[in-house]
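re: ur question from yesterday

yeah so i grabbed the chain u mentioned. its 390 aa long if i counted rite. heres the sequnce exactly as i have it in my notes:
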Amino acid sequence: MALWRGSAYAGFLALAVGCVFLLEPQLPGSALRSLWSSLQLGPAPAPPGAGSPEGRLAAAWDALIVRPARRWRRVAVGVNACVDVVLSGVKLLRALGLSPGNGKDHSELRSRNDLEEAFVHFMGKGAAAERFFSDKETFHDIAQIASEFPEAQHYVGGNAALIGQKFAANSDLKVVTSLSDIPTGVPVHLELASMTNKELMSNIMHQVFPAVTSLGLNEQELLFLSQSASGPHSSLSSWNGVPDVGVVSDILFWILKEHGKSESRASDLSRIHFHTLAYHILATVDGHWANQLAAVAAGARVAGTQACATETIDTRRVSLKAPHEFMTSRLEAGSRVVLNPSEPVVAWHREGVSFHFTPVLVCKDPVRTVGLGDAISAEGLFYSEVHPHL
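ran it thru and got these structure tokens back, copy pasting raw so excuse formatting
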């Protein structure tokens, strides 16, 4: 998708890779609380209120989040769109005649049993997942049963459509079908999705990354990206609980140094918005973006409000799960940071790359998590300012 700012062009393209089917945002509250607890994301929160860590953090965000001096005015979105069918995964398995057993990851789903094993595997990790379903008839049967389930809800889905919705109230919209439809020099945002094909990911890194300006991704996509190119920490098979901030920072730095914008490389990539359950990081090549402190805070704030279905942060319904302290790098002599809820955005620099970190106020009983990553990236873009020399 692309954005125009008056006569100056600016834009982003949301690209979804994979087939979204397995969605589980509406488990009963008791099940979600048990799942959240099993992740061991941190100590129990203090009682809610203005003086609690959650209250102080929310108030600090409100003071930090300011609109950029130059705002987006025209937005062009890609054609990626679908219908998200939202229902209880446990109830769907029962409707399919399946009983949860042992979990197992599958790079590709071919049967109902594959679906059941993948669901159990990722639910146990508290992680979202997207997998391609290769058997067309079985997929349509499952999709029909899910869509006709009495408690099923239907929402607009797809990265481009969801990000476009965010900008619809503030910008003119235009549909584009490919990168070739976007004029040269227009900033482009690429929103990754879960995938399991290393060759495809490698091709995206080498052929698509140089053509985009901004990138959005979560912890699974980040680690798989590094694994596909033998990048830093690629020996990790998976994350254990909350992703280590230093490890994430190392991989983000590597992406921008190996594939990002520089005087010696024909690449436009200069910004990465990383989002995981407990915290977010914005990494930018110096000199190309402004207002990123507000942007990362805005993305984290919308994660709490959308998941809880509230207009503003309700400190009674969220908790602080980010690490109390962390290292900014695991490969170099990084700094040790102690989190202060009253100053929730932490910034550091590394060889021409700036990092902005902020924790997330995690919803205790989430109402809707479908499209949350897209909402986060859209909010971050909305509050970002790209320098005109791009």
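noticed a couple things. The CA atoms of residues 97 and 112 lie 9 Å apart. also Confidence is low (pLDDT under 50) at residues 4-46.
anyway ttyl
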